Amino acid sequence: MFGYVRPYIPELLVREERYYRALYCGLCKTMKKTTGRLSSLSLSYDFVFFVLVRLVTDGEEVRIGRHRCIVHPHKRVPTVEPNETLRLAARISALFTYHKLRDDLRDRGASRRLRAALLYPIFRRARRRARLAELEGEFRRSLDTLSSLEREGSSSVDCSADAFGAMLAAAFSEGLSGANQRICHEIGRHLGRFIYAADAADDYEDDRRHKNYNPYVAANGGRELTDADRAAMRTALLLELGELEKAVDLLPFGEMGTVRALISNILYLGLPERIKWLSLSKEKEADDKSGSI
Amino acid sequence: MISQDPYKVLGVSPTASDEEVKRAYYALAKKYHPDNYSKDNPLADLATEKMQEVNAAYDEIQKMRSMGAAGGGQGYYSGTGYAGQGDPMYQQIRRMIQANRFGAADSALENIAVANRAAEWHYLKSITLMHRGWVNDAMRELEIACSMNPSNPEYQKAKQMFNRTANGYGSTYYNAGYGRGGGCSDSDLCTTLCCMNLLCNFCQ
Predict the structure, then answer these.
(1) Angle at the Cα of A63 from the Cα atoms of A59 and A64, rounded to 5 degrees
(2) Distance of CA B29 to CAs B75, B135, B155, Å?
(3) pLDDT digits (tens, 9 = 90+) for B140-155
(4) Which of A235, A254, A279 sits opposite B199 (nearest CB)?
(5) What is the CA radius of gyration of chain A?
(6) Which residues on chain A are in Cβ contact (under 8 Å) with B28?
(7) Cα(B120)–Cα(B63) distance, rounded to whole angstroms?
(8) CB spacing of A231 vs B191 below 8 angstroms
(9) CATH number of A9-291: 1.10.10, 1.10.600, 3.40.50, 1.20.120?
(10) Ranges of each domain in chain A
(11) Other C-beta atoms within 10 Å of A222: how many?
Protein backbone atom coordinates (compact mmCIF):
# COMPACT_ATOMS: atom_id res chain seq x y z
CA MET A 1 0.00 0.00 0.00
CA PHE A 2 2.65 2.50 1.04
CA GLY A 3 5.31 -0.11 1.55
CA TYR A 4 7.84 1.91 3.49
CA VAL A 5 6.69 1.47 7.07
CA ARG A 6 9.44 -1.06 7.57
CA PRO A 7 12.69 -1.53 9.45
CA TYR A 8 16.10 -0.47 8.31
CA ILE A 9 17.51 -4.00 8.12
CA PRO A 10 21.27 -3.34 8.51
CA GLU A 11 20.69 -2.06 12.04
CA LEU A 12 18.67 -5.09 13.19
CA LEU A 13 20.05 -7.94 15.24
CA VAL A 14 19.88 -11.26 13.42
CA ARG A 15 17.22 -12.62 15.77
CA GLU A 16 15.17 -9.45 15.29
CA GLU A 17 15.31 -9.81 11.54
CA ARG A 18 14.31 -13.47 11.78
CA TYR A 19 11.38 -12.61 13.98
CA TYR A 20 10.32 -9.89 11.58
CA ARG A 21 10.47 -12.25 8.61
CA ALA A 22 8.52 -14.88 10.51
CA LEU A 23 5.81 -12.29 11.16
CA TYR A 24 5.81 -11.28 7.52
CA CYS A 25 5.40 -14.90 6.39
CA GLY A 26 2.83 -15.46 9.13
CA LEU A 27 0.78 -12.52 7.92
CA CYS A 28 0.90 -13.85 4.35
CA LYS A 29 -0.27 -17.26 5.50
CA THR A 30 -3.02 -15.76 7.63
CA MET A 31 -4.26 -13.61 4.74
CA LYS A 32 -4.58 -16.68 2.56
CA LYS A 33 -6.61 -18.43 5.21
CA THR A 34 -8.73 -15.51 6.37
CA THR A 35 -9.55 -13.42 3.33
CA GLY A 36 -8.81 -15.74 0.41
CA ARG A 37 -5.74 -17.27 -1.21
CA LEU A 38 -5.16 -14.42 -3.68
CA SER A 39 -5.70 -11.65 -1.15
CA SER A 40 -2.08 -12.23 -0.07
CA LEU A 41 -1.09 -10.45 -3.29
CA SER A 42 -1.54 -7.22 -1.37
CA LEU A 43 0.82 -8.30 1.46
CA SER A 44 2.81 -5.29 2.60
CA TYR A 45 5.36 -4.33 5.24
CA ASP A 46 3.01 -1.68 6.57
CA PHE A 47 0.72 -4.26 8.06
CA VAL A 48 3.61 -6.01 9.76
CA PHE A 49 4.07 -2.76 11.65
CA PHE A 50 0.40 -2.92 12.56
CA VAL A 51 0.94 -6.48 13.80
CA LEU A 52 3.96 -5.42 15.89
CA VAL A 53 1.99 -2.68 17.61
CA ARG A 54 -1.03 -4.85 18.22
CA LEU A 55 1.02 -7.78 19.53
CA VAL A 56 1.96 -5.48 22.40
CA THR A 57 -1.64 -4.57 23.21
CA ASP A 58 -3.39 -7.82 22.37
CA GLY A 59 -1.08 -10.16 24.27
CA GLU A 60 -1.53 -12.90 21.67
CA GLU A 61 0.83 -15.84 21.86
CA VAL A 62 3.41 -15.94 19.06
CA ARG A 63 4.20 -19.50 18.01
CA ILE A 64 6.70 -19.96 15.22
CA GLY A 65 6.42 -23.01 12.98
CA ARG A 66 8.15 -23.92 9.75
CA HIS A 67 6.28 -23.93 6.47
CA ARG A 68 6.85 -24.16 2.77
CA CYS A 69 5.17 -21.76 0.38
CA ILE A 70 5.22 -20.77 -3.29
CA VAL A 71 7.78 -18.04 -2.70
CA HIS A 72 10.04 -20.38 -0.70
CA PRO A 73 9.54 -23.80 -2.30
CA HIS A 74 13.03 -25.09 -1.57
CA LYS A 75 12.91 -25.03 2.23
CA ARG A 76 10.62 -24.60 5.18
CA VAL A 77 10.83 -21.06 6.52
CA PRO A 78 10.00 -19.88 10.06
CA THR A 79 6.43 -18.61 10.04
CA VAL A 80 4.29 -17.27 12.86
CA GLU A 81 1.15 -19.39 13.19
CA PRO A 82 -2.09 -17.44 12.64
CA ASN A 83 -3.43 -15.76 15.77
CA GLU A 84 -6.08 -13.13 16.47
CA THR A 85 -3.71 -10.22 15.88
CA LEU A 86 -2.61 -11.57 12.51
CA ARG A 87 -6.20 -12.28 11.53
CA LEU A 88 -7.22 -8.73 12.35
CA ALA A 89 -4.29 -7.39 10.31
CA ALA A 90 -5.35 -9.59 7.37
CA ARG A 91 -8.95 -8.37 7.53
CA ILE A 92 -7.99 -4.70 7.76
CA SER A 93 -5.49 -5.12 4.96
CA ALA A 94 -8.23 -6.53 2.72
CA LEU A 95 -10.43 -3.55 3.51
CA PHE A 96 -7.63 -1.11 2.70
CA THR A 97 -6.80 -2.76 -0.58
CA TYR A 98 -10.44 -2.89 -1.61
CA HIS A 99 -10.84 0.85 -1.15
CA LYS A 100 -7.51 1.57 -2.77
CA LEU A 101 -8.57 -0.38 -5.85
CA ARG A 102 -11.91 1.42 -6.02
CA ASP A 103 -9.96 4.66 -6.00
CA ASP A 104 -7.63 3.40 -8.73
CA LEU A 105 -10.59 2.36 -10.88
CA ARG A 106 -11.85 5.91 -10.87
CA ASP A 107 -9.08 8.33 -11.56
CA ARG A 108 -5.68 6.88 -12.47
CA GLY A 109 -3.90 6.12 -15.72
CA ALA A 110 -4.99 3.29 -18.03
CA SER A 111 -2.48 0.65 -16.88
CA ARG A 112 -3.35 1.22 -13.27
CA ARG A 113 -7.05 1.03 -14.08
CA LEU A 114 -6.51 -2.27 -15.84
CA ARG A 115 -4.55 -3.68 -12.92
CA ALA A 116 -7.25 -2.51 -10.52
CA ALA A 117 -9.97 -4.05 -12.65
CA LEU A 118 -8.21 -7.42 -12.61
CA LEU A 119 -7.68 -7.41 -8.86
CA TYR A 120 -11.05 -5.93 -7.96
CA PRO A 121 -13.07 -9.19 -7.86
CA ILE A 122 -10.50 -10.79 -5.52
CA PHE A 123 -10.70 -7.98 -3.05
CA ARG A 124 -14.44 -7.49 -3.29
CA ARG A 125 -14.66 -10.99 -1.94
CA ALA A 126 -11.83 -10.46 0.58
CA ARG A 127 -13.55 -7.35 1.88
CA ARG A 128 -16.77 -9.30 2.40
CA ARG A 129 -14.89 -11.93 4.33
CA ALA A 130 -13.19 -9.26 6.45
CA ARG A 131 -16.52 -8.38 8.10
CA LEU A 132 -15.51 -5.00 9.46
CA ALA A 133 -18.65 -2.98 8.77
CA GLU A 134 -18.09 -0.44 11.52
CA LEU A 135 -14.48 0.23 10.58
CA GLU A 136 -15.51 0.49 6.95
CA GLY A 137 -17.90 3.26 7.94
CA GLU A 138 -14.93 5.17 9.34
CA PHE A 139 -12.95 4.52 6.17
CA ARG A 140 -15.75 5.84 3.99
CA ARG A 141 -16.11 8.96 6.07
CA SER A 142 -12.38 9.69 5.83
CA LEU A 143 -12.27 8.95 2.11
CA ASP A 144 -15.26 11.22 1.50
CA THR A 145 -13.53 14.01 3.40
CA LEU A 146 -10.37 13.44 1.40
CA SER A 147 -12.11 13.59 -1.95
CA SER A 148 -14.11 16.67 -1.07
CA LEU A 149 -10.90 18.41 0.06
CA GLU A 150 -9.39 17.42 -3.24
CA ARG A 151 -12.35 18.81 -5.18
CA GLU A 152 -12.09 22.10 -3.30
CA GLY A 153 -8.35 22.19 -4.04
CA SER A 154 -7.68 22.68 -0.31
CA SER A 155 -4.27 24.15 0.41
CA SER A 156 -4.04 22.74 3.93
CA VAL A 157 -1.85 19.65 4.15
CA ASP A 158 -3.00 19.24 7.74
CA CYS A 159 -6.67 18.95 6.81
CA SER A 160 -6.08 16.13 4.36
CA ALA A 161 -3.45 14.48 6.53
CA ASP A 162 -5.92 14.51 9.41
CA ALA A 163 -8.55 12.72 7.37
CA PHE A 164 -6.06 10.05 6.42
CA GLY A 165 -4.82 9.91 10.00
CA ALA A 166 -8.38 9.30 11.21
CA MET A 167 -8.56 6.28 8.97
CA LEU A 168 -5.40 4.72 10.36
CA ALA A 169 -6.37 5.70 13.89
CA ALA A 170 -9.60 3.74 13.54
CA ALA A 171 -7.72 0.80 12.06
CA PHE A 172 -5.04 0.67 14.75
CA SER A 173 -7.51 0.95 17.61
CA GLU A 174 -10.04 -1.49 16.17
CA GLY A 175 -11.45 -3.76 18.87
CA LEU A 176 -9.47 -2.20 21.74
CA SER A 177 -10.66 -0.33 24.81
CA GLY A 178 -9.22 1.79 27.62
CA ALA A 179 -5.66 3.07 27.61
CA ASN A 180 -4.55 0.74 24.81
CA GLN A 181 -7.33 2.01 22.58
CA ARG A 182 -6.19 5.60 23.15
CA ILE A 183 -2.52 4.80 22.60
CA CYS A 184 -3.12 2.86 19.39
CA HIS A 185 -5.50 5.53 18.16
CA GLU A 186 -2.72 8.11 18.52
CA ILE A 187 -0.17 5.83 16.89
CA GLY A 188 -2.46 5.34 13.89
CA ARG A 189 -3.32 9.01 13.70
CA HIS A 190 0.26 10.26 13.65
CA LEU A 191 1.48 7.49 11.39
CA GLY A 192 -1.34 8.29 8.95
CA ARG A 193 -0.59 11.99 9.08
CA PHE A 194 3.07 11.28 8.45
CA ILE A 195 2.37 8.97 5.53
CA TYR A 196 -0.02 11.40 3.89
CA ALA A 197 2.29 14.39 4.24
CA ALA A 198 5.41 12.44 3.23
CA ASP A 199 3.64 11.16 0.11
CA ALA A 200 2.39 14.61 -0.79
CA ALA A 201 5.90 16.03 -0.36
CA ASP A 202 7.34 13.22 -2.45
CA ASP A 203 4.83 13.69 -5.27
CA TYR A 204 5.28 17.45 -5.32
CA GLU A 205 7.18 17.81 -8.60
CA ASP A 206 5.15 15.17 -10.44
CA ASP A 207 1.83 16.61 -9.34
CA ARG A 208 2.95 20.12 -10.15
CA ARG A 209 3.98 19.17 -13.68
CA HIS A 210 0.89 17.10 -14.39
CA LYS A 211 -1.42 19.54 -12.64
CA ASN A 212 -2.65 16.89 -10.23
CA TYR A 213 -4.05 17.89 -6.90
CA ASN A 214 -1.45 18.14 -4.14
CA PRO A 215 -2.03 20.23 -1.00
CA TYR A 216 1.61 21.38 -0.83
CA VAL A 217 1.48 22.56 -4.44
CA ALA A 218 -1.81 24.32 -3.75
CA ALA A 219 -0.29 26.03 -0.71
CA ASN A 220 2.68 27.24 -2.74
CA GLY A 221 0.61 28.48 -5.67
CA GLY A 222 2.22 25.94 -7.99
CA ARG A 223 5.76 27.25 -7.81
CA GLU A 224 8.85 25.07 -7.82
CA LEU A 225 10.13 23.77 -4.47
CA THR A 226 12.77 25.91 -2.81
CA ASP A 227 15.27 24.69 -0.23
CA ALA A 228 13.31 26.60 2.39
CA ASP A 229 10.13 24.70 1.41
CA ARG A 230 11.97 21.44 1.78
CA ALA A 231 13.35 22.40 5.16
CA ALA A 232 9.87 23.37 6.32
CA MET A 233 8.38 20.08 5.13
CA ARG A 234 11.15 18.14 6.80
CA THR A 235 10.61 19.89 10.12
CA ALA A 236 6.86 19.28 10.02
CA LEU A 237 7.42 15.62 9.23
CA LEU A 238 9.98 15.22 12.01
CA LEU A 239 7.59 16.84 14.46
CA GLU A 240 4.96 14.33 13.37
CA LEU A 241 7.40 11.49 14.07
CA GLY A 242 8.07 13.06 17.45
CA GLU A 243 4.35 12.82 18.25
CA LEU A 244 4.32 9.24 17.01
CA GLU A 245 7.25 8.49 19.31
CA LYS A 246 5.36 9.79 22.33
CA ALA A 247 2.45 7.47 21.70
CA VAL A 248 4.74 4.50 21.00
CA ASP A 249 6.62 5.13 24.26
CA LEU A 250 3.39 4.51 26.16
CA LEU A 251 2.81 1.04 24.73
CA PRO A 252 2.93 -1.55 27.54
CA PHE A 253 5.93 -3.43 26.13
CA GLY A 254 6.72 -5.27 29.35
CA GLU A 255 9.37 -7.78 28.41
CA MET A 256 8.73 -7.81 24.67
CA GLY A 257 12.27 -6.78 23.83
CA THR A 258 12.33 -7.96 20.23
CA VAL A 259 9.02 -6.34 19.32
CA ARG A 260 10.15 -3.16 20.99
CA ALA A 261 13.46 -3.17 19.11
CA LEU A 262 11.66 -3.66 15.80
CA ILE A 263 9.18 -0.88 16.46
CA SER A 264 12.01 1.45 17.54
CA ASN A 265 14.00 0.62 14.44
CA ILE A 266 11.01 1.39 12.19
CA LEU A 267 10.28 4.60 14.06
CA TYR A 268 13.80 5.96 14.28
CA LEU A 269 15.47 4.59 11.17
CA GLY A 270 12.91 3.11 8.77
CA LEU A 271 10.49 6.02 8.58
CA PRO A 272 13.13 8.78 8.44
CA GLU A 273 14.59 7.03 5.38
CA ARG A 274 11.46 8.11 3.59
CA ILE A 275 12.13 11.80 4.11
CA LYS A 276 15.90 11.70 3.76
CA TRP A 277 15.67 13.27 0.32
CA LEU A 278 14.32 16.44 1.89
CA SER A 279 17.64 17.13 3.57
CA LEU A 280 19.69 16.07 0.54
CA SER A 281 17.96 18.37 -1.88
CA LYS A 282 20.98 19.26 -4.02
CA GLU A 283 22.13 15.68 -4.60
CA LYS A 284 18.63 14.53 -5.31
CA GLU A 285 18.25 17.17 -7.99
CA ALA A 286 21.56 16.12 -9.53
CA ASP A 287 20.36 12.51 -9.53
CA ASP A 288 17.09 13.47 -11.14
CA LYS A 289 18.83 15.36 -13.90
CA SER A 290 21.31 12.65 -14.76
CA GLY A 291 18.46 10.13 -14.66
CA SER A 292 16.24 12.02 -17.07
CA ILE A 293 18.86 12.51 -19.78
CA MET B 1 0.99 1.49 43.28
CA ILE B 2 3.95 -0.84 42.94
CA SER B 3 2.75 -4.24 41.98
CA GLN B 4 5.50 -4.85 39.46
CA ASP B 5 9.12 -5.63 40.04
CA PRO B 6 10.80 -2.21 40.16
CA TYR B 7 13.78 -3.56 38.25
CA LYS B 8 11.52 -4.60 35.40
CA VAL B 9 9.92 -1.17 35.35
CA LEU B 10 13.35 0.38 34.85
CA GLY B 11 14.37 -2.40 32.48
CA VAL B 12 17.54 -3.35 34.35
CA SER B 13 18.62 -6.56 36.02
CA PRO B 14 18.55 -6.77 39.82
CA THR B 15 22.32 -7.17 39.72
CA ALA B 16 22.82 -3.86 37.88
CA SER B 17 25.16 -1.38 39.53
CA ASP B 18 23.80 1.77 41.19
CA GLU B 19 25.17 3.70 38.25
CA GLU B 20 23.30 1.55 35.71
CA VAL B 21 20.08 1.86 37.67
CA LYS B 22 20.48 5.59 37.78
CA ARG B 23 21.18 5.80 34.07
CA ALA B 24 18.12 3.72 33.24
CA TYR B 25 16.05 5.89 35.53
CA TYR B 26 17.23 9.12 33.93
CA ALA B 27 16.57 7.77 30.44
CA LEU B 28 13.00 6.85 31.35
CA ALA B 29 12.37 10.02 33.31
CA LYS B 30 13.50 11.97 30.27
CA LYS B 31 11.17 10.00 28.06
CA TYR B 32 8.02 10.36 30.13
CA HIS B 33 8.82 13.82 31.40
CA PRO B 34 5.69 15.97 31.40
CA ASP B 35 7.62 18.49 29.33
CA ASN B 36 7.46 15.97 26.51
CA TYR B 37 3.72 15.54 26.75
CA SER B 38 2.12 18.95 26.63
CA LYS B 39 -1.31 19.47 28.14
CA ASP B 40 -2.77 19.21 24.63
CA ASN B 41 -1.42 15.73 24.16
CA PRO B 42 -4.34 13.34 24.55
CA LEU B 43 -2.07 10.81 26.23
CA ALA B 44 -0.56 13.20 28.80
CA ASP B 45 -2.33 11.48 31.70
CA LEU B 46 -0.91 8.11 30.70
CA ALA B 47 2.57 9.61 30.52
CA THR B 48 2.12 11.04 34.02
CA GLU B 49 1.11 7.61 35.30
CA LYS B 50 4.14 6.11 33.66
CA MET B 51 6.37 8.78 35.16
CA GLN B 52 4.99 8.06 38.61
CA GLU B 53 5.55 4.37 38.06
CA VAL B 54 9.16 5.00 37.08
CA ASN B 55 9.72 7.33 40.06
CA ALA B 56 8.18 4.82 42.43
CA ALA B 57 10.30 2.01 41.01
CA TYR B 58 13.46 4.05 41.38
CA ASP B 59 12.56 5.06 44.92
CA GLU B 60 11.82 1.46 45.74
CA ILE B 61 15.19 0.32 44.46
CA GLN B 62 16.93 3.11 46.34
CA LYS B 63 15.15 2.07 49.47
CA MET B 64 15.98 -1.58 49.02
CA ARG B 65 19.62 -0.82 48.35
CA SER B 66 20.03 1.62 51.20
CA MET B 67 18.94 -1.01 53.71
CA GLY B 68 22.54 -2.10 54.04
CA ALA B 69 24.76 0.72 52.89
CA ALA B 70 24.06 4.44 53.04
CA GLY B 71 21.92 5.40 50.03
CA GLY B 72 23.01 7.15 46.87
CA GLY B 73 21.08 9.91 45.11
CA GLN B 74 17.40 10.64 45.42
CA GLY B 75 15.97 10.82 41.94
CA TYR B 76 16.46 14.24 40.50
CA TYR B 77 17.86 15.55 43.72
CA SER B 78 20.74 14.43 45.82
CA GLY B 79 19.80 14.50 49.44
CA THR B 80 23.41 14.72 50.54
CA GLY B 81 25.78 17.43 51.54
CA TYR B 82 23.93 20.48 52.59
CA ALA B 83 21.37 18.95 54.90
CA GLY B 84 23.38 20.11 57.87
CA GLN B 85 22.75 23.76 57.17
CA GLY B 86 19.79 25.88 58.07
CA ASP B 87 16.64 25.51 59.99
CA PRO B 88 15.98 22.28 61.94
CA MET B 89 12.42 22.39 60.61
CA TYR B 90 13.74 21.94 57.05
CA GLN B 91 16.03 19.16 58.22
CA GLN B 92 13.02 17.33 59.50
CA ILE B 93 11.30 17.75 56.13
CA ARG B 94 14.42 16.50 54.36
CA ARG B 95 14.31 13.39 56.48
CA MET B 96 10.68 12.84 55.45
CA ILE B 97 11.65 13.18 51.82
CA GLN B 98 14.53 10.75 52.25
CA ALA B 99 12.09 8.28 53.78
CA ASN B 100 9.83 8.76 50.75
CA ARG B 101 7.12 10.36 52.87
CA PHE B 102 6.36 12.96 50.26
CA GLY B 103 2.82 13.62 51.40
CA ALA B 104 3.93 14.35 54.96
CA ALA B 105 6.77 16.52 53.69
CA ASP B 106 4.40 18.50 51.54
CA SER B 107 1.92 19.19 54.30
CA ALA B 108 4.76 20.17 56.64
CA LEU B 109 5.91 22.64 53.99
CA GLU B 110 2.44 24.03 53.55
CA ASN B 111 2.25 24.63 57.30
CA ILE B 112 5.10 27.13 57.14
CA ALA B 113 3.73 30.66 56.87
CA VAL B 114 4.29 32.35 53.51
CA ALA B 115 6.33 35.12 55.12
CA ASN B 116 8.80 32.62 56.58
CA ARG B 117 9.54 30.73 53.40
CA ALA B 118 13.26 30.76 52.65
CA ALA B 119 15.07 29.56 49.52
CA GLU B 120 15.26 26.11 51.03
CA TRP B 121 11.48 26.01 51.32
CA HIS B 122 11.13 26.50 47.57
CA TYR B 123 13.79 23.90 46.88
CA LEU B 124 12.10 21.29 49.02
CA LYS B 125 8.69 22.19 47.62
CA SER B 126 10.10 21.63 44.18
CA ILE B 127 11.19 18.12 45.22
CA THR B 128 7.73 17.17 46.39
CA LEU B 129 6.19 18.63 43.23
CA MET B 130 8.64 16.73 41.07
CA HIS B 131 7.73 13.53 42.81
CA ARG B 132 4.12 14.15 41.88
CA GLY B 133 5.23 14.70 38.30
CA TRP B 134 4.27 18.37 38.41
CA VAL B 135 7.29 19.49 36.55
CA ASN B 136 6.24 22.97 35.61
CA ASP B 137 5.51 23.97 39.18
CA ALA B 138 8.61 22.14 40.34
CA MET B 139 10.74 24.12 37.92
CA ARG B 140 9.15 27.37 38.99
CA GLU B 141 9.86 26.66 42.65
CA LEU B 142 13.40 25.66 41.85
CA GLU B 143 13.84 28.85 39.88
CA ILE B 144 12.69 30.84 42.93
CA ALA B 145 15.08 28.92 45.18
CA CYS B 146 17.97 29.66 42.81
CA SER B 147 17.15 33.33 42.54
CA MET B 148 16.85 33.68 46.31
CA ASN B 149 20.16 31.94 46.86
CA PRO B 150 22.15 31.84 43.60
CA SER B 151 25.32 30.52 45.21
CA ASN B 152 23.85 27.30 46.57
CA PRO B 153 25.41 24.39 44.65
CA GLU B 154 22.64 21.99 45.61
CA TYR B 155 19.99 24.10 43.87
CA GLN B 156 22.22 24.61 40.86
CA LYS B 157 22.80 20.90 40.52
CA ALA B 158 19.08 20.21 40.55
CA LYS B 159 18.57 22.86 37.90
CA GLN B 160 21.19 21.33 35.64
CA MET B 161 19.40 18.04 35.96
CA PHE B 162 16.22 19.66 34.69
CA ASN B 163 17.99 21.23 31.76
CA ARG B 164 19.46 17.92 30.79
CA THR B 165 16.00 16.41 30.49
CA ALA B 166 14.96 18.85 27.79
CA ASN B 167 15.79 16.67 24.81
CA GLY B 168 14.19 15.76 21.57
CA TYR B 169 12.94 12.94 19.42
CA GLY B 170 15.02 9.81 19.40
CA SER B 171 17.75 10.95 21.74
CA THR B 172 17.59 7.85 23.94
CA TYR B 173 17.63 5.63 20.89
CA TYR B 174 20.61 7.31 19.32
CA ASN B 175 22.48 7.31 22.61
CA ALA B 176 21.94 3.58 22.87
CA GLY B 177 24.31 3.12 19.98
CA TYR B 178 21.96 3.03 17.04
CA GLY B 179 23.01 6.49 15.95
CA ARG B 180 23.46 7.13 12.27
CA GLY B 181 23.07 10.87 12.46
CA GLY B 182 19.81 12.32 11.20
CA GLY B 183 16.87 12.88 13.47
CA CYS B 184 16.72 15.89 15.73
CA SER B 185 19.83 16.62 17.75
CA ASP B 186 20.56 19.59 19.95
CA SER B 187 22.39 21.36 17.19
CA ASP B 188 19.30 20.96 15.06
CA LEU B 189 17.28 23.03 17.45
CA CYS B 190 18.20 26.32 15.83
CA THR B 191 17.28 25.08 12.40
CA THR B 192 14.05 23.73 13.80
CA LEU B 193 13.15 27.08 15.26
CA CYS B 194 13.94 28.81 11.98
CA CYS B 195 11.75 26.33 10.18
CA MET B 196 8.91 26.92 12.59
CA ASN B 197 8.80 30.47 11.25
CA LEU B 198 8.54 29.16 7.75
CA LEU B 199 5.75 26.85 8.80
CA CYS B 200 3.79 29.83 9.97
CA ASN B 201 4.04 31.27 6.47
CA PHE B 202 2.57 28.02 5.22
CA CYS B 203 -0.60 28.40 7.22
CA GLN B 204 -1.61 31.76 5.83
Answers:
(1) 140
(2) 9, 11, 19
(3) 888 889 888 888 888 8
(4) A235
(5) 19
(6) none
(7) 24
(8) yes
(9) 1.10.600
(10) 9-291
(11) 11
